[in-house]
Design brief:
By secondary structure, this protein is an all-alpha fold. It folds into 2 domains: about 10-55, no CATH class; about 60-170, AhpD-like, CATH 1.20.1290.10. Helix content is about 60%, strand content about 0%. It is globular.
Protein backbone atom coordinates (compact mmCIF):
# COMPACT_ATOMS: atom_id res chain seq x y z
CA UNK A 1 0.00 0.00 0.00
CA UNK A 2 1.13 3.51 -0.73
CA UNK A 3 -0.14 4.82 2.62
CA UNK A 4 0.17 2.68 5.71
CA UNK A 5 -2.52 2.39 8.38
CA UNK A 6 -1.82 3.48 11.91
CA UNK A 7 -2.15 1.08 14.84
CA UNK A 8 -5.83 0.52 15.65
CA UNK A 9 -5.34 1.86 19.17
CA UNK A 10 -4.34 5.26 17.75
CA UNK A 11 -7.73 5.88 16.11
CA UNK A 12 -10.50 7.67 18.04
CA UNK A 13 -12.86 5.42 20.03
CA UNK A 14 -15.82 6.11 17.75
CA UNK A 15 -13.81 4.96 14.72
CA UNK A 16 -12.72 1.82 16.59
CA UNK A 17 -16.44 1.01 16.96
CA UNK A 18 -16.66 0.85 13.16
CA UNK A 19 -13.61 -1.43 13.14
CA UNK A 20 -15.28 -3.70 15.70
CA UNK A 21 -18.32 -3.94 13.41
CA UNK A 22 -16.10 -4.72 10.40
CA UNK A 23 -14.37 -7.47 12.35
CA UNK A 24 -17.74 -8.99 13.29
CA UNK A 25 -19.02 -8.76 9.71
CA UNK A 26 -15.92 -9.72 7.73
CA UNK A 27 -13.71 -11.48 10.28
CA UNK A 28 -11.12 -8.73 10.05
CA UNK A 29 -10.74 -4.98 9.89
CA UNK A 30 -10.79 -3.78 6.29
CA UNK A 31 -7.58 -2.19 5.02
CA UNK A 32 -9.37 0.68 3.23
CA UNK A 33 -11.13 1.54 6.50
CA UNK A 34 -7.80 1.87 8.24
CA UNK A 35 -6.61 4.26 5.54
CA UNK A 36 -9.81 6.34 5.33
CA UNK A 37 -9.84 6.55 9.13
CA UNK A 38 -6.61 8.54 9.07
CA UNK A 39 -9.19 11.30 8.51
CA UNK A 40 -11.89 10.36 11.06
CA UNK A 41 -14.49 12.80 9.67
CA UNK A 42 -14.09 11.43 6.15
CA UNK A 43 -14.28 7.85 7.39
CA UNK A 44 -17.39 8.40 9.51
CA UNK A 45 -19.17 10.18 6.66
CA UNK A 46 -18.15 7.48 4.20
CA UNK A 47 -19.36 4.72 6.54
CA UNK A 48 -22.74 6.40 6.93
CA UNK A 49 -23.12 6.80 3.17
CA UNK A 50 -22.16 3.15 2.60
CA UNK A 51 -24.72 2.09 5.20
CA UNK A 52 -27.44 4.10 3.46
CA UNK A 53 -26.62 2.58 0.07
CA UNK A 54 -26.34 -0.99 1.38
CA UNK A 55 -29.46 -1.06 3.56
CA UNK A 56 -31.91 -3.96 3.37
CA UNK A 57 -34.82 -1.72 2.37
CA UNK A 58 -33.11 -0.28 -0.68
CA UNK A 59 -35.33 -0.11 -3.77
CA UNK A 60 -32.51 -1.89 -5.61
CA UNK A 61 -32.13 -5.66 -5.45
CA UNK A 62 -29.13 -6.62 -3.29
CA UNK A 63 -27.62 -8.93 -5.94
CA UNK A 64 -27.92 -6.18 -8.57
CA UNK A 65 -26.18 -3.72 -6.24
CA UNK A 66 -23.29 -6.14 -5.77
CA UNK A 67 -23.12 -6.96 -9.48
CA UNK A 68 -22.70 -3.28 -10.29
CA UNK A 69 -20.10 -2.69 -7.60
CA UNK A 70 -18.00 -5.56 -8.92
CA UNK A 71 -18.20 -4.15 -12.45
CA UNK A 72 -17.15 -0.66 -11.32
CA UNK A 73 -14.30 -2.25 -9.37
CA UNK A 74 -13.12 -4.20 -12.42
CA UNK A 75 -13.12 -1.08 -14.60
CA UNK A 76 -11.23 0.94 -11.96
CA UNK A 77 -8.65 -1.82 -11.35
CA UNK A 78 -9.40 -2.08 -7.63
CA UNK A 79 -8.21 -5.51 -6.54
CA UNK A 80 -9.54 -5.06 -2.99
CA UNK A 81 -12.98 -4.00 -4.24
CA UNK A 82 -13.26 -6.86 -6.72
CA UNK A 83 -12.28 -9.24 -3.91
CA UNK A 84 -14.80 -8.07 -1.30
CA UNK A 85 -17.63 -7.22 -3.71
CA UNK A 86 -17.39 -10.54 -5.58
CA UNK A 87 -17.52 -12.36 -2.24
CA UNK A 88 -20.66 -10.40 -1.35
CA UNK A 89 -22.11 -11.16 -4.78
CA UNK A 90 -21.58 -14.88 -4.14
CA UNK A 91 -23.26 -14.60 -0.73
CA UNK A 92 -26.21 -12.94 -2.46
CA UNK A 93 -26.76 -16.02 -4.59
CA UNK A 94 -25.08 -15.16 -7.89
CA UNK A 95 -23.39 -18.11 -9.59
CA UNK A 96 -19.63 -18.37 -10.09
CA UNK A 97 -20.29 -18.67 -13.82
CA UNK A 98 -22.10 -15.33 -13.91
CA UNK A 99 -19.43 -13.62 -11.82
CA UNK A 100 -16.74 -14.91 -14.17
CA UNK A 101 -18.75 -13.63 -17.18
CA UNK A 102 -19.20 -10.15 -15.75
CA UNK A 103 -16.17 -8.64 -17.44
CA UNK A 104 -17.68 -9.64 -20.82
CA UNK A 105 -21.35 -9.24 -19.84
CA UNK A 106 -22.32 -7.73 -23.20
CA UNK A 107 -21.62 -11.00 -25.00
CA UNK A 108 -23.04 -13.29 -22.28
CA UNK A 109 -26.56 -14.69 -22.16
CA UNK A 110 -26.39 -14.90 -18.34
CA UNK A 111 -27.57 -11.34 -17.77
CA UNK A 112 -31.22 -10.28 -17.88
CA UNK A 113 -32.58 -7.03 -19.35
CA UNK A 114 -32.64 -5.18 -16.01
CA UNK A 115 -29.02 -6.11 -15.36
CA UNK A 116 -28.02 -5.13 -18.90
CA UNK A 117 -29.67 -1.71 -18.63
CA UNK A 118 -27.99 -1.11 -15.26
CA UNK A 119 -24.61 -2.34 -16.53
CA UNK A 120 -24.76 -0.02 -19.57
CA UNK A 121 -25.49 2.86 -17.20
CA UNK A 122 -22.72 1.75 -14.84
CA UNK A 123 -20.16 1.69 -17.61
CA UNK A 124 -21.27 5.06 -18.98
CA UNK A 125 -20.90 6.61 -15.53
CA UNK A 126 -17.56 4.93 -14.86
CA UNK A 127 -15.65 5.21 -18.12
CA UNK A 128 -14.37 8.69 -18.91
CA UNK A 129 -14.75 8.11 -22.66
CA UNK A 130 -18.51 7.50 -22.34
CA UNK A 131 -21.43 9.50 -21.06
CA UNK A 132 -24.98 8.94 -19.95
CA UNK A 133 -27.62 9.94 -22.50
CA UNK A 134 -31.41 10.28 -22.44
CA UNK A 135 -31.99 6.98 -24.24
CA UNK A 136 -30.02 5.15 -21.54
CA UNK A 137 -32.05 6.75 -18.75
CA UNK A 138 -35.30 6.08 -20.62
CA UNK A 139 -34.33 2.41 -20.79
CA UNK A 140 -33.70 2.38 -17.03
CA UNK A 141 -37.11 3.97 -16.40
CA UNK A 142 -38.72 0.74 -17.66
CA UNK A 143 -37.37 -0.98 -14.55
CA UNK A 144 -36.77 1.73 -11.95
CA UNK A 145 -38.81 4.64 -10.62
CA UNK A 146 -37.10 7.98 -10.02
CA UNK A 147 -36.26 7.20 -6.38
CA UNK A 148 -34.58 3.96 -7.45
CA UNK A 149 -32.72 5.85 -10.21
CA UNK A 150 -31.32 8.21 -7.60
CA UNK A 151 -30.15 5.24 -5.51
CA UNK A 152 -28.71 3.51 -8.57
CA UNK A 153 -26.79 6.63 -9.55
CA UNK A 154 -25.60 7.19 -5.97
CA UNK A 155 -24.42 3.59 -5.65
CA UNK A 156 -22.42 3.75 -8.88
CA UNK A 157 -20.92 7.13 -7.96
CA UNK A 158 -20.01 5.88 -4.47
CA UNK A 159 -18.35 2.74 -5.83
CA UNK A 160 -16.39 4.83 -8.30
CA UNK A 161 -15.09 7.01 -5.49
CA UNK A 162 -14.30 4.02 -3.28
CA UNK A 163 -12.60 1.92 -5.95
CA UNK A 164 -10.60 4.85 -7.33
CA UNK A 165 -9.43 5.70 -3.81
CA UNK A 166 -8.42 2.10 -3.08
CA UNK A 167 -6.76 1.67 -6.47
CA UNK A 168 -4.73 4.89 -6.06
CA UNK A 169 -3.58 3.79 -2.59
CA UNK A 170 -2.91 0.27 -3.98
CA UNK A 171 -4.98 -1.50 -1.34
CA UNK A 172 -4.46 -5.25 -1.86
CA UNK A 173 -7.21 -7.90 -1.77
CA UNK A 174 -7.82 -9.40 1.66
CA UNK A 175 -8.74 -12.92 0.54
CA UNK A 176 -12.53 -12.71 0.70
CA UNK A 177 -13.24 -14.15 -2.73
CA UNK A 178 -12.28 -17.66 -3.71
CA UNK A 179 -13.20 -16.96 -7.32
CA UNK A 180 -10.40 -15.46 -9.41
CA UNK A 181 -12.35 -12.51 -10.74
CA UNK A 182 -10.31 -10.70 -13.40
CA UNK A 183 -9.89 -6.96 -13.02
Amino acid sequence: MRIEPRPISSYPWYIRLFFWKQKRTYGKVLEPGLIWARSPWLFATLALLYGALNRKRSPLDSALRSLLTVRVSQINHCAFCVDINAATLTKRGVSDEKIMALQDWQSSSLFNEIERAALYYTEAMTRSDQEVDDAMVDRLRRYFDEDALVELTGLIAFQNMSSKFNSAIDVPPQGFCQIPVPN
